[in-house]
């Protein structure tokens, strides 16, 4: 594939699957020492503006609503139906400053209360933290290329307020148009198809 179709380094899915953790909560992502790529799928009005201008905060992008980002490409493909669901036709890779992403993860508050979670001794304490935080965190089942649930959990982060505004502009290093790549890989989205390529992803370890 040429760079227009493959805008990120890729590797066969079956090779990556062999090294990925099979269970547990893990941040799988395309990252380096300074940046990380997260994914979102938008309707054309938002996505094409971002591609043209290199930022998200265009007239159709709402900064008043929570926006969810996913560092795991396959989770994004599950959510968007490989770019076929209405309003999610434009898949973007969004390269962020890694320091910003790590700060967002550390500041995140879980979307649901769990009495066994550290840091929230009561539902009231968790609700107070939710009200203060601009970042929500969910660990959802990861999915195979065909959409089947896996034991491994994938992270998604909901951003609002000043954190969302920073994500949409000053912390956003690059907007990557993934549409052509998604189109070429969609017909290969079978669990064991040896031809299926995905962006190279490794576990991202965020220290406390």
Structure summarized in a few sentences:
With about 210 residues, this protein is α+β, with helices and mostly antiparallel strands.
Task: Furnish the topology, listing elements before pairings.
Layout (H helix, E strand, L loop, with lengths): L9 E3 H7 L4 E3 L1 E4 L3 E8 L1 H10 L13 E3 L3 H8 L9 E8 H10 L1 E2 L12 H10 L2 E9 L5 E11 L1 H8 L3 E6 L1 H7 L11 E3 L2 E2 L5
Output the keywords.
208 residues, alpha+beta, five-stranded mixed β-sheet, five-stranded antiparallel β-sheet, 7 helices, 29% helix, 30% strand
Task: Please characterize this protein's 3D structure.
With 208 residues, the chain is an alpha+beta fold. 29% of the residues lie in helices and 30% in strands. It contains seven helices and twelve strands. It has helices at 13-19, 44-53, 73-80, 98-107, 123-132, 161-168, 179-185, and strands spanning 10-12, 24-26, 28-31, 35-42, 67-69, 90-97, 109-110, 135-143, 149-159, 172-177, 197-199, 202-203. The strands form three sheets. Strands 2, 5, 7, 8 and 9 form a five-stranded mixed β-sheet that branches. The longest helix has 10 residues, at 44-53. The chain is globular and about 50 Å long.
């Amino acid at each position: 594939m040429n760079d227009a179709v493959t805008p990120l380094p890729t590797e066969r899915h079956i090779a990556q699957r062999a090294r990925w953790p099979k269970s547990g909560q893990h941040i799988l992502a395309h990252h380096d020492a300074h940046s990380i790529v997260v994914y979102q799928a938008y309707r054309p009005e938002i996505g094409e503006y971002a591609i043209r201008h290199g930022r998200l905060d265009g007239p159709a992008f709402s900064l008043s609503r929570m926006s969810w980002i996913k560092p795991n490409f396959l989770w994004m493909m599950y959510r968007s139906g490989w770019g076929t669901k209405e309003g999610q036709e434009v898949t973007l890779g969004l390269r962020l400053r890694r320091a910003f992403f790590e700060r967002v993860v550390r500041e995140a508050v879980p979307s649901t209360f769990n009495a066994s979670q550290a840091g929230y001794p009561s539902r009231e304490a968790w609700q107070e933290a939710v009200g203060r935080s601009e970042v929500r965190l969910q660990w959802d089942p990861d999915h195979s290329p065909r959409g089947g649930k896996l034991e491994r959990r994938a992270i998604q982060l909901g951003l609002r307020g000043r954190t969302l505004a920073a994500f949409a502009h000053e912390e956003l290093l690059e907007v990557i148009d993934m549409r052509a790549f998604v189109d070429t890989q969609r017909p290969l989205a079978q669990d064991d198809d040896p031809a299926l390529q995905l962006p190279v992803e490794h576990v991202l370890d965020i220290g406390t």
